[in-house]
Specification:
Largest sheet: 7 strands, mixed
Shape: globular
Bound molecules: 4'-deoxy-4'-aminopyridoxal-5'-phosphate
Oligomer: single chain
Distance between the termini: 46 Å
Number of strands: 17
Number of helices: 17
Strand order of the largest sheet: 5-13-12-11-10-6-9
Radius of gyration: 22 Å
Length: 479
């Protein structure tokens, strides 16, 4: 039989979509699955919410108290969920203790900021050392130059500036791009999150009834934002990016994108996508910013860009690079950072590069050898493989995705490649899975994206807990 062009194309697309080991990323999509009865999911949710409220009385009390002084009772709106979130009193290694005295396995690890583990002895030692020599100089210091050299070497960039949060870093990176290009437009992907600066809130998780055509998404913005000139494209869609550039490149300063999307569970780049992004940015004179706030060291000892072999013009870093201390950075090619040097791009900050944060960098540099990262990743791979086997065994409508030390179960039978695919996943089962684990002492990030993180403090015991809990959940789904 002659194979038509359309058929060949379809086969190629399918291969591209299901490829699991493109540049050491992980995706396992089982070939068969059986739907889960929605009534079963409803029943689990009902039972698990009852169990939750029964076993977390003190968290409920704390939530009531905190609502009076803190909006939603939390210090960042991400931390809230209904009816109330768990309130934590202490953390060590891979575990946290809540106000009800329960020990919880932490698989969120501060969204990656606690990658070294809670109260890692090396981090504590470096910080205690810093506390004997001064907390803030607001002058140059050998400690900040040492830390800058470590970051530049590790992430293979020319220059870096320190900030205090990921939001600041992405804001400054965009400002560098605007200064360097004399253009004001910002391009981001639909569903992409880069912190809470106005332009990045646009289409962060837009309601589908406002989001428009999947190929040419509408930039959805709240009325309280002053985002400027913002453009939105779907992830993993080079033709849509090219079409966007053809029309608007003369106005677009930069394209900011996570190399691997880690705010919609985990969405991997299709084979060749990031390479094509790099080519198109060069062709249309658009500065490419990789937001590595979440990937960073969790992607490997040198970050996602180095690992995936695509060099951006600027990168933003935060979370994992500080050992748990508030620290972030932006940096990249000297020809762009020169706009900080020549004063066209203003970058100031009282606490930038403070000695405690620099102590965090020193600790991380000591801890994050290639070997240490590879060991943590091997544990993550083991968890992913074992969970994939359980998905297969119970024929669940789900698949596993992983990158570096992070992994997730995505409740869909086909690969998720962009925001619209993500929105089509089963959020009911995702919620039931998250809550089931929480009631059995395992805490993953709120938000139902179920991305777990294997830190330097996790070992075989913790992997077994994660996997066996998933098995129990699979049994409950099929009961
Ligand atoms: N970029 C990405 C990709 C993020 O995930 C986040 C926070 N989750 C930020 C930027 C903002 O970082 P921060 O919360 O430190 O401001």
């Amino acid at each position: 039989k002659r194979v038509s062009k359309a058929e060949t194309f379809a086969v190629q697309v399918l291969q591209m979509l299901t490829q699991s080991n493109h540049k050491q990323t992980y995706r396992f999509v089982p070939t068969t699955s059986v739907p889960v009865d929605p009534q079963r999911v409803e029943a689990i949710l009902k039972q698990e919410w009852e169990l939750f409220t029964k076993s977390t009385g003190k968290s409920a009390e704390e939530s009531c108290r905190s609502f009076k002084s803190l909006p939603l009772g939390v210090t960042s709106s991400f931390q809230h969920w209904d009816p109330y979130p768990i309130s934590i009193v202490s953390a060590k290694g891979a575990y946290m203790t809540d106000v009800d005295g329960r020990q919880l396995l932490d698989l969120s690890m501060g969204f990656g900021a606690m990658f070294a583990g809670h109260l890692n002895p090396t981090v504590v030692e470096e910080i205690q050392g810093a506390l004997t020599t001064g907390m803030l100089f607001v002058t140059p210091s050998p400690t900040s130059t040492d830390a800058a050299e470590m970051i530049c070497k590790r992430f293979e960039i020319d220059q870096v500036r320190f900030t205090n949060s990921g939001t600041e870093s992405t804001m400054y990176a965009v400002r560098v791009a605007r200064s360097a290009s004399d253009k004001m437009g910002i391009l981001k992907v639909e569903g992409g999150y880069h912190g809470s600066y106005d332009p990045f809130v646009v289409s962060a998780k837009p309601p589908l009834d406002k989001a428009g055509d999947p190929e040419e998404p509408t930039a959805v913005m709240d009325s309280n934002l002053v985002p400027g000139d913002i453009y939105v494209v779907p992830y993993n869609n080079a033709p849509a990016l090219e079409a966007m550039f053809e029309k608007n490149a003369s106005k677009i300063a930069c394209f900011i994108v996570e190399p691997v999307l880690e705010n919609l569970a985990i969405i991997l780049p299709d084979a060749g996508y990031l390479e094509r992004v790099r080519e198109l940015c060069d062709e249309y004179n658009v500065i490419l910013i990789f937001d590595e706030v979440k990937t960073g060291l969790t992607a490997g000892a040198h970050g996602a860009s180095v690992r995936l072999g695509v060099e951006p013009d600027l990168i933003t870093l935060a979370k994992s690079i500080g050992g748990g201390v508030p620290l972030a950075a932006f940096g990249g090619k000297k020809k762009y950072m020169d706009f900080v040097t020549n004063g066209k791009m203003a970058h100031f900050g009282t606490f930038n590069g403070n000695p405690l944060a620099m102590a965090g960098v020193r600790a991380i540099d000591r801890l994050c050898s290639d070997q240490a990262l590879a060991d943590a990743e091997a544990l993550n791979q083991q968890a992913l493989d074992r969970i994939s086997e359980i998905i297969d065994e119970y024929q669940l409508p789900a698949h596993t995705v992983g990158f570096g030390v992070k992994g997730c179960v995505t409740w869909s039978t086909t690969p998720v490649r962009n925001y619209r695919d993500y929105k089509a996943t089963d959020f009911g089962i995702a919620e039931a899975h998250w809550l089931f684990a929480l009631n059995r002492g395992i805490i993953t990030p709120p938000g139902l994206d179920e991305q777990w993180l294997i830190s330097l403090a996790h070992g075989q015991t913790e992997i077994d807990l994660l996997v066996e809990d998933f098995r129990d959940f699979a049994k409950a789904l099929r009961a």
